[in-house]
Design brief:
The chain is mainly α. It has five helices and two strands, in the order ααβαβαα.
Length: 131
């Protein structure tokens, strides 16, 4: 389903209106939602024009990289659900219940993954001094 179709048919905008404390990071397909709810929904930054200063282009790449790093856990969880659905060979009447169970497991596993890499600030000796 197209992202904009989902916004209209699934009631995403209405849910954001009802739950003002909810925040979301979305991909480029939801830019309209980010424009409509600027305090709640964050979309990737718009790409600078070709004639923009090099500093603006570098800043754009860095902002996009950071947002992508935060979203990757969700993207991996979505991919796991798609892969599972493609390979489901069980009975059709059991699908809904099985889908809910698998979604819970995928969600739990995604929640356990680190969303931000932990970088050590410990200094490490690169090579032994010969003096």
């Amino acid at each position: 389903m197209h992202d904009q179709t989902a916004v209209g048919t699934e009631g995403i905008a209405e849910q954001l209106r009802l739950h003002l404390k909810v925040k979301a990071e979305v991909d480029e397909g939801y830019r309209g939602l980010a424009n409509e709810f600027p305090g709640q929904v964050t979309a990737p930054p718009k790409k600078p024009k070709d004639d923009a200063p090099e500093g603006d282009k570098r800043a754009w790449r860095e902002m996009r990289r950071r947002q992508s790093s935060r979203r990757i856990v969700v993207e991996h969880a979505n991919a796991e659900m798609r892969q599972w659905r493609q390979h489901y060979t069980g009975r059709r009447e059991d699908y809904a219940e099985t889908h809910s169970a698998i979604a819970g497991l995928v969600s739990d596993r995604a929640a356990q993954r680190a969303t931000q890499p932990s970088h050590s600030t410990e200094l490490v000796l690169a090579r032994q001094s010969t003096c």
